[in-house]
Amino acid sequence: MLDWDDLRFFLALARHGTLSAAGKVLHVSQSTVGRRLSSLEATLSVRLLNRTPDGYVPTLAGLEVRERAEHVEAELIALEREVTGRDTRLRGLVRVTCSETLAAHVLAPGLARLHGQYPDIKIELIPNSRELSLAMREADISLRMRQPEQHDLVVRRIGSIAFGIYATPGYLRDQGEPDLADGFAGHRLITQLDDTQEMTQSAWLTEIASRATVALQTSSHEAAVVAAATGGGLACLARFRADREPRLIRLPMPTDPPCADILLLVHKDNRHTPRIRAVLTHITESVHALAVRLQPADAEMPETHAVGV
């Protein structure tokens, strides 16, 4: 008889393509993912995934197994959500996913207060630049800076983040002040990769700095801060983080970089579950308490559109 856990590991590997990515989602080691795949293939006596230079890809048998396993998974998740929604207790695990910078500087500082209010609620904080699936229970709550692609989610705007252009005094002394009229010619840029939340800000920077050279791209906002702070170049960074970095100075610009909405996401079937609702409220209060840092008074306010929770 098939082991559902083996199928669950197979689905994660089929979706994410690598042992390491699947292991991160499942919170296990790469070897465990590989062992579970081997167990499933041995049970079925067929190869389900082929390993290629670009990652694991399903065989024909693997595609059929994936389709059927996803049907089973959807039914199990629907059952879990229905049962969870009837849980009136303020206890249990709540998984929260967000970017690395939001996790470290916005959510983590308030966890002690949350635990003081609700000692039986356990938080699993998952910093991830990739949008984890709330429908597939990879997380219960997501804090993001762009509209989600997933369906069946309730989205609420709870704040805004201002950005600025930063560099070190040493970098500016060596390279000179950037000239907007000359497209920042002769300067180096630190930008975000395509799958990260700060792409709007990076696109704005590369547009006004059309003659600069992109020296570094990264999916980590923290890495961009450190790279800029060590003289790596100009970077468009969140002000609540970069203003507190003593090695950086913010450059005056004719117009501010575009701000980013802070969006709180939850699956529609989970929003009234007491422990999840309690964490949603706590996150909202934490972001509101940091409003002055996240959106300084001298920053331009963004245009926003969101659906309330």
Automatic annotation (TrEMBL):
Report a single Gene Ontology molecular function: DNA binding
Looking up InterPro entries in the UniProt record yields:
LysR-type_TF_proteobact-type (IPR058163), LysR_HTH_N (IPR000847), LysR_subst-bd (IPR005119), WH-like_DNA-bd_sf (IPR036388), WH_DNA-bd_sf (IPR036390)
- Top-level taxon in the UniProt lineage: Bacteria
User: Where does the HTH lysR-type domain lie?
Assistant: 2-59
Q: Which UniProt keywords apply?
A: DNA-binding, Transcription, Transcription regulation
A UniProt-annotated Pfam family: HTH_1
Q: Is rRNA processing set as a keyword in this record? A: no
In which family does this protein belong, per the annotation? Belongs to the LysR transcriptional regulatory family.
Name the UniProt record assigns to this protein: DNA-binding transcriptional LysR family regulator
The source organism is Methylobacterium persicinum
